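Revision sheet: structure tokens.
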Amino acid sequence: MGYAVPMTTTDMICGLLNRECDLYPFKTGWSFHDLVTGETANRFGDLVVPAASTRKVAILMTAMQAVNRGELSLEEPVTIDERWQISDSGVFQFFRPGFTITMHDVLLMMIIVSDNACTGIVCDRLGLDAINRFSQSVGMTGTVHREGIPQYTLMSKLASGTAAMSDARGTVNETTPNDMARLLHVILRASTDAGFSESIGVTPALAELALEMLSRQRLRARLPFLLPGDTRVAHKTGTSGTTYNDVGIVYRGDMPRFILAVYTSDVPAVLPDGRAAPGATSKLIGTLARLCWDNLA
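Predicted:
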């Protein structure tokens, strides 16, 4: 006589998330980590997708490595001049050029409002090779950083109508849902484990600073969208062409409870039911996070 194998909470969550994804006429991949049991699940978890601005989490951690080595200082002054005010992402594009802020605040603004003036400066200082080396060193085998400031965000191209909002594989910055969930888990572990943080070239304090910056995210219309208003979510969004993404650590109180990395692709500008892509993807990603929240104690 056979016996049914009991369904785990992760199995149940996996089914719920997949059912929700199946309601939408575009591809959605996700990676889930239960930070209490250690169980994981994914849908298209190893599918290479456009990273968009979620890649800035790896850029942030490469910068923390450089700080730890003494190659960058969080207090050093950085001047934002016209050559960096060329992208439509963030707020510094609207400022009068020539103002100065600290490297700490450059990193902060790169994360919390996805400012590409800041991204360009940091990538220029670090070099894409260093960012790719860091990504590979922590096991992000499907991740490639090809551009500092993505071409499709350049205002000169947008104004002339030549900005290619293409997500063509092999031409843009790329990652996978599993890679980004892995990176978030690495940062979380490094924030409390001195030996592990040393192995990736940072300190617990620098890893915790990265989590604090991610927790101050101002673009909160995806993972946090349907969660209680005071929920801490250390996360980074990303949008490019036909992709709408968000990756983050969701806390219950002070305890990191789960990681969820969600990537959508081939999203039509308007869905068959008339909904616009930004709203529909926000509702989907918010619902996936809420399903995890409701089914984890």
